[in-house]
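S1.2 Input.
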Amino acid sequence: RYAEAEPIYIKVLELRRDILGEKHPDTIGSMAELATTYHAQGRYAEAEPIYIKVLELRREVLGEKHPDTIKSMASLAATYYAQGRYAEAEPIDIKVLELRREVLGEKHPDTIRSMAELATIYHAQGRYAEDEEISIKVLELRREVLGEKHPDSLQAMHDLAITWNSQGRRDDAIGLMNKCLRLRQTVLGQDHLFTKQSAQSLESWENG
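S1.3 Output.
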């Protein structure tokens, strides 16, 4: 219901600018919420300049290593990615990963998610060797931190199988996706969207 929320976010932002000033954290937070609303509706061209402004302000007010600043960097990278602008998204995501490793540690879920997002950017550019290296690490960390049956671990398994198939490693891809499918059927159920995605990939590879 983002379309309904949009005028409310705009009004709140106007009020906070007037009362608190543009550099107040609450005002910046309202800007970020508005940008997120646009992003969720696929209105990336409108979200992008707001995310850029939010990032500039948070760097100035909070510093580069503040979690909100890092989150703003990740949001901007996601907006570039959604527009197919992978070369612009990549250096930002690399920076986000560096900062999260430093601030949160290698095994923090946000750090691992940043690794997965960077792997996705490499995959989209056909850079499967770089994608694979990170995807293997993501799967290892999620298994260690969350357990093998956690939905995030299963997503990492699915993603690595996709990468192997893209590299022409069909047998490896089928073996891993088979395991992922069985676990998703158990954990998520037969009718879950993610279970169906794994089943469809597996079927297309086996029949290909």
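S1.4 Remarks. Residues 149 and 186 are 9 Å apart (CA to CA).
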